[in-house]
């Protein structure tokens, strides 16, 4: 039985992980970003978020076509259940957080005046679900979706922390080769 993840899974895991951590850090710093830099920070945050969403879709497709290694049987029953729960939560959140951010941006009433251009290079589209709404309706949905995006980002932050702590616990306290399973 192979207890390592495939190279494709490893690459996608680390690209998504780095993208999420960087974007969470950027998002948490918005309130401390100087006024003259905030637009660039928001644009980079949007670009990275949509990139992460694309990578997540690739990751899910990879996962559907490649069987991951089983959770080690040396883990306690509660650890196996918690691992499944946290991984399920992570997969849900790594789709929901960037998608809710994209919806939030799409509902911005001034979106037409500020085209979405990924990394200042690739013109990108806004989700057409808000087309036809009045400015007042867009404001309502923009606020609602912004709150959802922020709240789910905090839950994602907690889930990422749990995931990292679990991996470190298994690696260093239990002396399992956990980190080697998700490395090259």
Question: What are the key terms here?
Answer:
184 residues; mainly alpha; Fumarate Reductase Cytochrome B subunit; two-stranded antiparallel sheet; 5 helices; 2 strands; 67% helix; elongated
Describe the protein's architecture and organization.
It is a single chain. The two termini are 18 Å apart. The chain is built from 5 helices and 2 strands, in the order αααββαα. It is an all-alpha fold and 184 residues long. It has one domain (7-181): Fumarate Reductase Cytochrome B subunit, CATH 1.20.950. Strands 1-2 form a two-stranded antiparallel ribbon.
The total beta strand count reads 2
CATH architecture: Up-down Bundle
Q: Helical stretch count?
A: 5
Q: Helix amount, in percent?
A: 55-70%
With strands numbered from the N-terminus, the spatial order across the biggest sheet is: 1-2
Q: Which geometry do the CA atoms define?
A: elongated
Distance between the termini: 18 Å
Structural class: mainly alpha
Quaternary state of this entry equals single chain
CATH class: Mainly Alpha
Strand and helix map with partners:
Blueprint: H1 7-28, H2 38-65, H3 77-106, E1 117-118, E2 122-123, H4 135-173, H5 178-181
Antiparallel strand pairs: 1-2
